[in-house]
Amino acid sequence: MKKVTLVGLMGMVVLASCVSKKKYVALEGDLSNTKSMLTKTQVEKEELESKVSKIEARVAEYNEKINSLQEINDSQYSSIDDVAVMSNNTKKKMRATLAKIDPSELAKAQTLEDSMNLAISYNLKKSISDEDDDVIVDINKTVVMINISDKLLFNSGSYRVSNKANTILAKLAEVINSEPSMEVMVEGHTDSRTISTEMFQDNWDLSVKRATSIVRLLQNKYNVDPANLIAAGRSSYMPLVENNSKENMAINRRTRIVIIPNLDKFFALLDAESL
């Protein structure tokens, strides 16, 4: 009887052992499967993250292209009465400038070109000098002509540039240097009174020497490229007004600076203070 009982117990132990081993093997299989699923999930997660990253990169690229196209659109040039071009950004700045101009002067502008000329004249005067009566700016088809009274540049009867001219010439050089490719002509003008001294043979001589004095100073002191500078003497033969009074003669004694600017760079330069 005892032997039977012992055999039975041993059988139960073996059976229990077999059951436990099967469960272990099953659990081990489940663990392996779980690990495989985790690995697969991790791989899928990394693949999704990679795809998302690529999509985000594409979105950023497209946004950059859109912004670039917007910038190009803003800077597109448009024709002004078939004689000039101006970007949309410059037009906005021009409108801001026109808002500062005397309405009576603004009323004289009949075309977009007229408005552009008024805006450039206003900004250039403010940029170069506060002496409104002694600086006259004229514009003809985007060619800018700046007439500066000789009393701002020279002592009476002399071609030597006075110290008070330094501020004006420094600002003028900044405008010229803003567009290195443009040519700049410096013209000397006199009134109609004749002159003949040991220093000056006539008004031709005086006007040329005054022009070359300005050119040399622009080159040597203010680093304007001499290859872009032209000095010319006009004597008394291009007066602004009749030489029939002291006041008018003073107007005709002047130095004229003729420049052809790139309008966008021109406005950008003047933008700091004026726009």
TrEMBL record:
Signal peptide region? none
Gene Ontology CC annotation, any one: membrane
Residues folding into a coiled coil are: 31-72
**Sorted alphabetically, which keywords does the UniProt record give?**
Coiled coil, Membrane
Q: Which PROSITE patterns match?
A: OMPA_2, PROKAR_LIPOPROTEIN
Q: Name one Pfam family in it.
A: OmpA
The reply to whether DNA damage figures as a keyword in the UniProt entry is no
Residue ranges occupied by any OmpA-like domain in the UniProt entry:
141-263
UniProt keyword annotation of Membrane present: yes
Q: What is this protein called?
A: Chemotaxis protein MotB
